[in-house]
Amino acid sequence: MRFHTRKWVKPEDLNPNGSLFGGRLLAWIDEEAALYTTIQLENSKVVTKYISEINFMASARQGDIVEIGIDVKKFGTSSLTLICEVRNKMTRETILTVDNIIMVNLGADGTPSPHGKTKIEFVRDRLPS
Ligand SMILES: CCCCCCCCCCCCCCCC(=O)SCCNC(=O)CCNC(=O)[C@H](O)C(C)(C)COP(=O)(O)OP(=O)(O)OC[C@H]1O[C@@H](n2cnc3c(N)ncnc32)[C@H](O)[C@@H]1OP(=O)(O)O
């Protein structure tokens, strides 16, 4: 799994207990999944369809750095199934895992559209050498 994004936990990210607010983390994950999907499918019209159960195993505190990792589990016809792991760079603990994030590729009319992708592509492979 590649950990593309790092976030610094700031005061506005905390819950009343002084640890990272779960909703903030879910927003970061959703954004990361949308960006990952947009880049993989080369389409900015993608939506989050389904997020499976989320298992919070540890937390983070102000000043900690968290890393968000995403990998592809399955290329469907219009969908892309992702897995996600978030870890705390300071404590080296896994904060949470998500087993299935289903993203759907949309056409111009806003309905599911085949994306035609079957494997992970790296941006450098798309650039002329
Ligand atoms: C280069 C850089 C440029 C940058 C440029 C800016 C980029 C910036 C990115 C912006 C990205 C914003 C995105 C943010 C993320 C949101 O905030 S999205 C907002 C929240 N989500 C929504 O509002 C979605 C609402 N739902 C819907 O509109 C409809 O349900 C959908 C998603 C269009 C799907 O419609 P549907 O009729 O249910 O579709 P259906 O054909 O049954 O299923 C479609 C696919 O999903 C699968 N599926 C459906 N339900 C399930 C389920 N429960 N479990 C598993 N699979 C399922 C189906 O199996 C099917 O898969 P395939 O077999 O085609 O692979």
Task: Give an overview of the whole structure.
The protein has two helices and six strands, in the order E-H-E-E-E-E-E-H. By secondary structure, it is of the alpha+beta class. The chain has a single domain (2-123), classed as Hotdog Thioesterase (Thiol Ester Dehydrase, Chain A, Roll), CATH 3.10.129.10. Strands 1, 2, 3, 4, 5 and 6 form a six-stranded antiparallel β-sheet that branches. Strand 4 (65-75) and strand 5 (79-88) form a beta hairpin. The chain is elongated, with a radius of gyration of 16 Å. The two termini are 26 Å apart. The relative contact order is 0.23. The chain binds Palmitoyl-CoA. Palmitoyl-CoA (PKZ) binds at residues 30, 34, 38-39, 44, 46-50, 76-79, 102, 104, 112. Palmitoyl-CoA (PKZ) binds next to helix 1, strand 2 and strand 6. It comes from Winogradskyella marina. InterPro entries: Cytosol_ACT (IPR040170), HOTDOG_ACOT (IPR033120), HotDog_dom_sf (IPR029069), Thioestr_dom (IPR006683). Belongs to the acyl coenzyme A hydrolase family. This is Acyl-CoA thioesterase. Keywords: Hydrolase.
Keywords:
single chain; 129 residues; alpha+beta; Thiol Ester Dehydrase, Chain A; six-stranded antiparallel beta sheet; 2 helices; 6 strands; 19% helix; elongated; binds Palmitoyl-CoA; Thioestr_dom; Cytosol_ACT; hydrolase; Acyl-CoA thioesterase; HotDog_dom_sf
- Helix content percent band: 10-25%
Q: What count of helical segments does DSSP give? A: 2
What's the CATH topology name? Answer: Thiol Ester Dehydrase, Chain A
CATH class designation:
Alpha Beta
